[in-house]
Design brief:
This protein has 18 helices and seven strands. The structure holds carboxymethyl coenzyme *A.
């Protein structure tokens, strides 16, 4: 392969092949079509045949795998888990049922669901030695840092759950994770508050049990409010999967090296933490609080966003995939009004959020860039109304996203096409040059 200029031309006919011309030479590339008619040009043999690679920073045009888990049509605002619309699941299902659907591919029978719930309930406690880790973390440590670390440390406790190709071992590891992550998250909160850890109470349902571990203390009775529990369950369900997002891709990437499941999930937790990903729910509330404190009605803030002053963004707006609306945001906006009313909570942050949304949706800057509210725009306001401290928001997203990560990891491990994830690069550094001894520099 020479170093000269290349001229690329890609033509995609009605046939099952695309024609790529580089510097006068032609290459045929297979075309892959998904069940919803998305089209991909398969370039997996391009470097071998043509000696070139493709470049796609941020992977906006790159399919890393075929997947049968979640379908998103960002132009039409569609999200489906295993074909089932998110709106139907939000109305009729529960988080654990949706988790089963994502991981197993079908809605469970009553018997399957009952057995699954039993297994999850059975594994909710953590080893007593796990609790000792918390003492080593500063009280002001971010709960996402603690959660990621403790999830990773689970691999030290379960040497019997390391063989990624052993389905039975992995089933136990998966149940352990889904059962224990709420306990781990709740303990990160208790540690930050200096309060005793509360044992899980296995007569409670999944979300209610989590709320109990978060908010109960040994000093007094704690009744889980059913409205709060149902809302928490809905929030978990709406976050349960979102196909090849940053954290799911991280889980797949780490897992592709056949690292154990706990390590791969721990990496997913850390990827989720970033403010451009799961950390946005915390960033939204902090942004609304700043606007409130400054006495602005939102207009000055939006001017700053549009002028891109100091990289200011309207947090909770915009999405790599949704260029119309995010269906999860629509469900959460409605839930936000309902829950606040039923709990008798009023917050000026909701007024500011509604005002910002109204102005932004009519503004050319946001219209031209197809920026709409995403899942994080209203979720933080709900969580605050439920009494969840702001720095815990992303840990709740973690609990919700866990079944999605697991579904992707399992799909990846069983995919016969799976290879270690190892992207290429175009090197732009110095050409070969001699080593210069220290005294000559
Ligand atoms: N506020 C202001 N401008 C924005 C925003 C925003 N929230 N989002 C994108 N833009 C602008 C951006 O400046 C760029 O403008 P220009 O074309 O003039 O350079 C254009 O829109 C395209 O943005 P991008 O950064 O290339 O888009 P992306 O697909 O790489 O980023 C995103 C997607 C979600 C990271 C981004 O929209 C963003 O930063 N949003 C705010 C953070 C947020 O709410 N994240 C949660 C995402 S949903 C849950 C999750 O994934 O975890």
């Amino acid at each position: 392969m020479g170093r000269g200029l290349y001229y690329f031309a890609l033509a995609m006919g009605e046939s099952k092949k695309a024609q790529l011309t580089i510097d006068g030479s032609s290459y045929e590339l297979p075309i892959i079509r998904g069940t919803e008619n998305e089209v991909a040009v398969d370039i997996s043999r391009l470097r071998n045949t043509a000696g070139v690679i493709t470049m796609d920073p941020g992977y906006g045009n790159t399919g890393s795998c075929s997947s049968a888990i979640t379908f998103i049509d960002g132009e039409r605002g569609i999200l489906r888990y295993r074909g089932v619309p998110i709106e139907d699941l939000a109305e009729h299902s529960t988080f654990l049922e949706a988790a089963w659907l994502l991981m197993e591919g079908e809605l469970p029978t009553q018997e399957e669901l009952d057995t699954f719930k039993d297994h999850i309930t059975y594994h909710t406690m953590v080893h007593e030695d796990v609790k000792r880790f918390y003492a080593g973390f500063p009280h002001n440590a971010h709960p996402m840092a603690v959660t990621g670390a403790v999830v990773g440390a689970l691999s030290t406790f379960y040497p019997d759950s390391m063989q990624v190709t052993n389905d039975r071992e992995m089933e136990i590891a998966i149940h352990r994770l889904i059962a224990k992550v709420p306990t781990i998250v709740a303990y990160s909160y208790k540690h930050s508050m200096g309060q005793p850890f509360m044992s899980p109470l296995n007569k409670l349902r999944y979300a209610a049990n989590f709320l109990h571990m978060m908010f109960a203390t040994p000093a007094e009775e704690y009744e889980v409010d059913p409205v709060v529990a149902r809302t928490m369950d809905l929030i978990f369900l709406l976050h349960a999967d979102h196909e090849q997002n940053c954290s799911a891709s991280t889980v797949r990437m780490v897992g592709s090296s056949q690292a154990n499941l706990f390590s791969a999930i721990s990496a997913g937790v850390h990827a989720l933490w970033g403010p451009l990903h799961g950390g946005a729910n915390q960033a939204v509330v902090e942004m609304l609080e700043q606007i409130l404190a400054s006495g602005d009605d939102g207009k000055q803030f939006l001017d700053k966003v549009k002028n891109k002053r100091a990289g200011t963004r309207l947090m909770g707006f915009g999405h790599r995939v949704y260029k119309n609306f995010d269906p999860r945001a629509t469900i959460l906006k409605r839930a936000c009004f309902e829950v606040l009313e039923r709990l008798g909570v009023s917050t000026p942050l909701l007024d500011i959020a509604v005002q910002l949304e109204e102005i932004a949706l009519r503004d050319d800057y946001f219209i031209a860039r197809k920026l709409y509210p995403n899942v994080d725009f209203y979720s933080g306001i709900i969580l605050q109304a439920l009494g969840v401290p702001v720095n815990m928001f992303t840990t709740l997203f973690t609990i919700g996203r866990l079944p999605g990560w697991i579904a992707h990891w399992t799909e990846m491990i069983h995919d016969p096409q799976n290879r270690i994830a190892r992207p290429r690069q175009i090197y732009t550094g110095a050409r070969e040059r001699p080593y210069v001894p220290m005294e000559q520099r």
